[in-house]
Amino acid sequence: MAKILLINPVVREEDVPRHIPYGIALLAAIASRDGHLVQIYDENAWRRGEDVVRQVCQADDWDIIGIGGITTTYASIKSTVRIARELCPKAVIVMGGGVLTSLPREMMAWLPQVDVGVIGEGFLTFPELCAMVDAGERDFTRIDGVIARDASGKLIMSKQRELLDDLDSLPYPAWDMFPLDIYFANSQSLFSEEGMLASRRLDINSSYGCSLICRFCYHLGIAGDMRYETNAEGEVEVAFDKPGNYTRAIRYHSPEYTVRMVKHAYDKYGINFVGFLDENLMTMDQYSGRTWMKEICRLWHEYGLAPKKNPDGTWTGVHWSGTSHATLCTKEILEIMREAGCSHLVYGYESFAPHVLKTIGKGATLESNIRSFFWTLDAGIRPIPNQIIGFPVDDFESLRMSMSAWKRLGIQVKPHFATPYPGSEWFTVFRKSIEDQYKGDLEAFIVDLGDASRISAVISTNFNAIELLGLRELMLMDDQKKIDEYEKVWRSNHNIPDGQPSTLVPSKKAKGPRVVTNVSQLNPA
Predict the structure, then answer these.
(1) Where are the strands (E) in 201-288, listed by range?
(2) Which residues are bridge partners to 417 per DSSP?
């Protein structure tokens, strides 16, 4: 059997480790089930630096060293694979996850130390790869869903891997291979009273994918939005959502699998809180005919997981949180979720300006955002509004509309910045502009990506990075006066008469922006 080392890279240096990497935990469980010898080094949890990474790489004669994650892990991955190649020359270095899937050819070119990349979902690909290595073979392109180098060093993409249909065939994640004490110590979240009191939280994923087409979102190649196309050079490459071309695969675990997994974690680890990592719980509820979430909640009660509060403020059972969507939730399901222990739901409201919402592709409106907020509050669940500024058509009016909505809702939001992550539609649309902002060095942009609270490439037509940073601070201070004063400066700089409703959009014929006075002239795509 193969000796496998899986490394979880640092995800966000500016934050403490909060979430056990679900994908790596599943792959570890699958490889262990197949009889392989698996060890995990969680650099995101330990954060001991390169010296300890070197010690781990030298700890055994590894046959496979696997690493992967989301795009923000790239800098950590680059450092780790360099060390692994130096100290483990015979090991097969495998890379996967969204960071590889979004830009497979670029990643393999930037990281020559990597032998093979797993594109998209790895549940079927990784065990086949492990079996091939264990058999002493190295022709990885015979495996569907990979990118590897041939004898001449040329990158070859194999046939596209189909998605796994029967998600319930997956084992439970190998949580016990990770330093649970570190993650439990960071269980608390400030989104609800129950979240703040959580002391032993684990995260689960009950579904894969989302029905929405948010143009800033990337589904990691697991939502049916990924396809293979042939470029002008005759090479096969990965393509994702493009304007007018959308596909989705809706997959989810059965309620029984989901709740049994939580009961297993409750009995084995004594958890008292669960975070659903799903992109959008309400997609699955709607797609199932409004039965899926009700059944999860019913089973939560049946398995004795519904929280019961003790006199000292503690509780038995498991509170939980997840995601919702303004146009897909209902008053009925929210009330049922609360009775089963749901404490807070994250809503991607993004904006409260109708002309911005029309361009995002989410299907939400100002009215549906407001309605869902109060429905959730009335059900006894905390609605957590997520907002973004710096969308292509954001303007002074959209910022004011959001500030007005905050007052109407009685909330304060610190918006993220619109970030065109690789794999998203807006990365495809704005790629040339992104590269220009980094002097043609796309890798520099990837290294610069943070958690969206730090600004990187700008896709806003109206505002530059300095303006977005400053305007966000004024929004947080509710300083309408200074925003009004700066708008006058901005209008003067762009020769737009005071009082004329306008925005700047790129001209299709000439360089630089053109001015339009009606946002309906803008192409939402």
Answers:
(1) 201-204, 207-208, 227-230, 236-239, 251-252, 273-276
(2) 389
Amino acid identity of residue 294, one-letter, is K
The Cα 284–Cα 206 span in angstroms is: 9
CB burial of residue 503 (10 Å; 0-12, 13-18, 19+): buried
> For residue 90, how far is the Cα from the chain centroid?
33
Q: Which CATH superfamily is domain 3-168 in?
A: Cobalamin-binding domain (3.40.50.280)
Residue 226 · residue 238 · CB < 8 Å: yes
431 contact partners, CB below 8 Å, separation of at least 6: 420
> How far is 293 from 285, CA to CA, in rounded Å?
6
The candidate with the shortest Cα–Cα distance to 174, out of 22, 303, 35, 393, is: 22
Q: Model-level pTM?
A: 0.91
Structure tokens at 175: 């949580």
Q: Which two tokens stand for residue 15?
A: 């934050």
Instruction: Quote the CA–CA distance of 313 and 304 in Å, as a whole number.
Output: 19
Are 206 and 274 contacting, i.e. CB atoms less than 8 angstroms apart?
no
DSSP string, 295-353: HHHHHHHHTT-S-EE-TTS-EES-EEEEEE-TTT--HHHHHHHHHTTEEEEEEEEE-S-
Q: What percent of the chain has pLDDT over 70?
A: 94
- C-alpha angle 149/112/433, rounded to 5°? 100
Locate 464 and state its tokens.
């530059």
Question: pLDDT, tens digit, for every residue of 452-472?
Answer: 568 999 999 999 999 999 999
| Cα angle 508-428-106, degrees, rounded to a multiple of 5 | 130
96, 101, 104, 107 alpha-carbon torsion, rounded to 10°: -60
Residues of the chain within CATH 3.80.30.20 domain(s) are 193-221+249-506
Structure tokens at 24: 């790596």
pLDDT digits (tens, 9 = 90+) for 224-274: 777 788 887 778 888 877 776 777 888 999 999 999 999 999 999 999 999
The 3-class secondary structure across 136-157, one letter per residue, is: CCCCHHHCCCEEEECCCCCEEE
Length of the chain: 525
14: DSSP letter: T
| Dihedral angle sign, alpha carbons of residues 510, 514, 520, 521 | negative
> CB neighbours (10 Å) of residue 300?
27
What is the CATH number assigned to the segment(s) 193-221+249-506?
3.80.30.20
How many Cβ atoms sit within 10 Å of the Cβ of residue 176?
A: 11
Residue extent(s) of CATH 3.40.50.280 domains in the chain: 3-168
